[in-house]
Amino acid sequence: MNIFIAPNAFKGTHNSVEVAQIWAGVLGDKHQVQTLALSDGGDGFLDAIHFLIPELSRRTHLVTGPYPEQRVNADWLWDASNNIAYIEVAQACGLARATQPLRPLEATTFGVGELILAAQKAGAEDIYLGLGGTASTDAGSGALRALGWNFVDDAGRDIGQDLTRLNQMVVGGAQPPGLNLMTDVNNPLLGDQGAAVIFAPQKGATPRDVELLEARLAAFWLIARDQLGMNLSFPGSGAAGGLGAGLSLTGQAHLGSGFDLIADLGDLEDKLRWADLVVTGEGAFDSQSMMGKATGRIISLAQSKRKRTAVIAGSIAPGSLPMIDYAVALQGKSVRDGAVDLLSQLGS
Question: Residue 69 burial (CB < 10 Å; 0-12/13-18/19+)?
Fold first, then answer.
């Protein structure tokens, strides 16, 4: 059998590259396999890109972490032949890098701006930023500060993190190169499906914190509209705590799909045509998995080509699997055990 293995990351245990390699080691003992490590732009974005383009050089830059007093070593990838940089924003301000206790009202994207500057200094003409997995909900104001912007109140004083005091955005600094914002999140900046309401609770925000963060984002949106004539609450602007919204103010940013980028680089269509069975998975498969997530998109594409499909996941919510041929819920077992269980279901 030809088996195409295309997992997403199992957060907290393995990135998608590791999962693909583990499953290939098990399933490849009895079948022909090909692999593609998925990413939607969040944690593991760099690993997925580097797996596909191993000749890229990995660079490390010391930047501001999730909180202003934090310093972290953040990796990014450099394509010297094409002057392209790949940045995973979670390397700088990722939730996984946040110190405890979580402080959602203080989290910043300043380190992302520092990474953009590092790539620009290296000569980048295009930058692909994987958006997701952040501890921040600052509408990208931190990243803009690092790029030379200032945010002041009605007396011209710096407002710090409290965007509700914002009276004027002072544009400054050098113009960044082209910013390709890679995400598969369609949430807007504001409202019931926005950055604060949907994602901030995962970052440690209490109901009161969510209200304050929503007010900050709304103030930022209002000044951007009134001063710069830009509407920042568009589909995808809520990704990475509103980072996509803030970076769009540079005039150099364009939203794209992290999944589509990986698919193009990894010859997804060819691998789907070759496959008899498509195996995907993630840490928790639930109703949201089929709503734009990488695992759901792989399943939909495979089924549209009448391929058999299998899901291996840490947990599988009841009723969330759309006519899957094989399913394995790990329930505490290892990622490798999941592939062994699938092999058993296949009769091998």
Answer: exposed
- The model's pLDDT over 59-81, given as tens digits with 9 standing for 90+, comes to 999 999 999 999 999 999 999 99
Banded pLDDT at 173 (limits 50, 70, 90): confident
> Does residue 253 carry a pLDDT above 90?
yes
Q: Give me the half-sphere count of Cα atoms (radius 13 Å) on the Cβ side of residue 225.
A: 10
- Short-list 176, 177, 158, 178, CA closest to 168: 158
CATH number for the domain that contains residue 282: 3.40.50.10350
Give the β-pairing of 178-182 and 126-130: parallel
Cα–Cα distance measured from residue 180 to residue 292, given in angstroms and rounded to the nearest whole number:
19
Strands annotated E in the chain: 2-5, 32-35, 57-64, 71-79, 84-88, 126-130, 150-152, 168-170, 178-182, 253-256, 277-280, 284-285, 308-313, 315-316, 326-329
**How crowded is residue 203: how many other Cβ atoms within 10 Å of its Cβ?**
23
Distance in Å from the first CA to the final CA of the chain: 11
Confidence of residue 306 (pLDDT cuts 50, 70, 90): very high
Examine the fold and report which residue of 259, 277, 306 is the final residue of a domain before the chain moves on.
259
Say whether both 240 and 308 belong to one domain. Answer: no
Is residue 254 predicted with pLDDT exceeding 80?
yes
Spatial separation of the C-alpha atoms in residues 131 and 42, rounded to whole Å: 5
Q: Which of 203, 225, 259 is the last residue of a domain?
A: 259
- In degrees and rounded to multiples of 5, residue 20 shows phi and psi of -60, -40
Query: What counts of helices (H) and strands (E) characterise the chain?
Result: 11, 15
| Burial track 302-332 (b if 16+ CB lie within 10 A, e otherwise) | bbeeebbbbbbbbebeeebbeebbbbbbbee
pLDDT above 90 (res 40): no
Going by C-alpha positions, the residue among 85, 81, 70 that lies closest to residue 117 is: 85
Q: How many domains does the chain have?
A: 2
- pLDDT at residue 105 in the model: 98
Range of the domain at 246: 45-259
